[in-house]
Write a structure and sequence with these properties.
- The protein is of the alpha/beta class.
- The protein has two domains: 8-232, Spore Coat Polysaccharide Biosynthesis Protein SpsA, Chain A, CATH 3.90.550; 242-317.
- It is 40% helix and 20% strand.
- It has eleven helices and 13 strands.
- It has helices at residues 8-13, 27-38, 58-66, 83-93, 112-122, 189-195, 207-217, 242-247, 252-269, 272-296, 300-317, and strands at residues 17-23, 45-51, 72-76, 98-102, 106-108, 126-135, 143-144, 149-151, 158-160, 165-166, 175-177, 184-188, 221-232.
- Strands 1, 2, 3, 4, 5, 6, 11, 12 and 13 form a nine-stranded mixed β-sheet that branches. Strands 7-10 form a two-stranded antiparallel ribbon. Strands 8-9 form a two-stranded antiparallel ribbon.
- The longest helix is centred in the C-terminal third of the chain and has 25 residues, at 272-296.
- The chain starts with 7 loop residues before the first helix and ends in an 18-residue tail after the last helix.
- The model is unreliable at 1-12 and 323-335 (pLDDT under 50).
Length: 335
């Protein structure tokens, strides 16, 4: 998609894109991510970074590097709140026609935003379109994350289209249907308002899946646009085990939420027979498997956290009512 740059007239003709970047304790990565957004060829954008009360100097480094750029705003949470809260806070002050939620461990291709906006033009019923995420971490370099994400309704296990496909084997440029996207995705303003934002009670894990599925249930479509690219570097915190990081359970709090939210997600979006299948069969087996992996990695705290999360999720999933703290329902209907 060609973009006329350098004139106020050209900027007015293009929709404003608000890029919301939540970050925590990753000053260098966050700065690289913001720099890549500002280096794109899209002329009409704003960048909103939400620092989730980082103990390092993330906010100071962002201010020092981008403080003179009127397109960049930095907000800092007074306490550590979560990805869902940070994304909602960024969206609350965004003014764009499109909201691009981008994790801080990404570096965008120069034409990524233009390609995403072009994909919305190709799909009038789309509410969410994501770029193709290409891994850059050691051992996974130049592997495609997924060409489309979904869940098995009987087990709650994720289903990905050609996960970890070598980029060189990508079967041409195109748009692949999906039901949600982790890591990076653009939504229209109307779709975000229809869904009511991210459900903050998920805290972390499955909040992106829940958001995408509520959009699908409201009548929207979602796609992975392979011509839009982002390099995903990943992040391994000190003291974390790479094997557990790949499973998404590298920290106790994240592990607890992962186990609990898988059951919450099933209760919200699956029918009652499928919920029983997940709760009575898959969840217990999953707790045993994840716990065993964690113990083999000498992380008893991770195994214990997964067990506690499963027990809490089962109690909520099998209760007669949905958890009262769920802020949102299933979203509205596409207008």
């Amino acid at each position: 998609m060609k973009v006329l740059a350098g004139t106020a007239v050209a900027a007015r003709r293009e929709p404003l894109v608000s890029v919301v970047i939540p970050t925590f304790n990753r000053a260098a990565m966050a700065c690289d991510c913001v720099a890549s957004v500002l280096a794109t060829d899209w002329p009409s954008l704003e960048v909103i970074v939400v620092d989730d009360c980082s103990p390092d100097d993330t906010s100071a480094q962002l201010a020092a590097r981008f403080g003179a750029d009127a397109r960049v705003r930095v907000r800092r949470n007074e306490t550590n709140r979560s990805l869902a809260v940070s994304r909602n806070r960024g969206a609350a002050v965004a003014t764009g026609d499109y909201l691009f939620f981008l994790d801080d461990d990404n570096v965008l291709a120069p034409d990524a935003i233009a390609e995403l906006v072009a994909a919305f033009a190709r799909h009038p019923r789309a509410g969410l379109i994501a770029p193709l995420a290409v891994h850059q971490a050691a051992g996974r370099k130049n592997l495609v994350w997924t060409l489309g994400s979904d869940f098995n309704r009987w087990t709650s296990q994720p289903k990905d289209v050609m996960p970890n496909l070598p980029l060189a084997q990508l079967p041409g440029d195109g748009d692949y249907p999906t039901t949600y996207s982790p890591n990076a995705f653009m939504v229209s303003r109307a779709a975000f308002e229809c869904a009511g934002g991210f459900d903050e009670s998920f805290v972390i894990c499955f909040e992106e899946s829940d958001f995408g599925w509520r959009l699908m249930e409201a009548g929207y479509e979602a796609f992975i646009a392979t011509r839009a690219r982002t390099r995903h570097f990943g992040f391994l915190e000190p003291g974390c085990v790479s094997r557990l990081r790949q499973l998404g359970i590298e920290r106790p709090q994240r592990t607890y939420c992962f186990a609990r939210n898988r059951l919450r997600f099933a209760q919200r979006h699956f029918n009652w027979v499928q919920i029983l299948s997940v709760a009575l069969v898959f969840a217990p087996l999953s707790a045993v498997w994840y716990g065993t992996v964690a113990l083999r990695c000498r992380r008893a705290d991770i195994a214990w956290a997964y067990l506690r999360g499963t027990v809490r999720g089962l109690a909520e999933c099998l209760s007669a009512r949905r958890p009262a703290e769920w802020r949102n329902g299933k979203g509205g209907r596409m207008k």
